[in-house]
Specification:
Blueprint (H helix, E strand, L loop, with lengths): L1 E6 L2 E4 L4 E9 L7 E6 L6 E6 L5 E3 L7 E6 L4 E6 L8 E8 L3 E3 L3 E6 L1
Parallel strand pairs: 2-11
Antiparallel strand pairs: 1-3, 3-8, 4-5, 4-9, 5-6, 7-8, 9-10, 9-11
C-alpha cells in the first residue's frame, strides 16, 4: 500500500508564490517518477511538471520559467515552487508517484486572485 499526501495549497494574489509538497509513503523501495498535475473547474486534468529519480524534469509550456519541481529521494518527497502566479493557475493540484503503479494524492487547492 502506498500513500501520497500533498500539502501547501492556499489563496494567493496574482504575482505571488506558493510551494507545494508531496510525500509518498508505505511499501516503497524506491519511487520512480513523481509529478504534479492540475485540474481547473470544467477542464481536464493536465500535466504541470514531472521529475524522474535521476532528476530529469519536464514542464508544461504554460508554467516553464515560473514553476520549479524538485525532489528529495531519501524522503520520497517532491516539491513544486510556484512563482509569478496567475489567476489561470487556479486549480486543484494533484501529485502522482510512480512506484510499480501510479498512485495519486487527493489534491490541494490553489487559488490565485487577480
Amino acid at each position: 500500500q502506498v500513500q501520497v499526501v500533498e500539502s501547501g495549497g492556499g489563496l494567493v494574489q496574482a504575482g505571488g508564490s506558493l510551494r507545494l509538497s508531496c510525500a509518498a509513503s508505505g511499501n516503497i523501495f524506491s519511487v520512480n517518477a513523481m509529478g504534479w498535475y492540475r485540474q481547473a473547474p470544467g477542464k481536464q486534468r493536465e500535466l504541470v511538471a514531472t521529475i524522474t529519480s535521476g532528476g530529469y524534469t519536464n514542464y508544461a509550456g504554460s508554467v516553464k520559467g515560473r514553476f520549479t519541481i524538485s525532489r528529495d529521494n531519501a524522503k520520497n518527497t517532491v516539491y513544486l515552487q510556484m512563482n509569478s502566479l496567475k489567476p489561470e493557475d487556479t486549480a486543484v493540484y494533484y501529485c502522482k508517484a510512480t512506484v510499480r503503479y501510479d498512485y495519486w494524492g487527493q489534491g490541494t487547492q490553489v487559488t490565485v486572485s487577480s
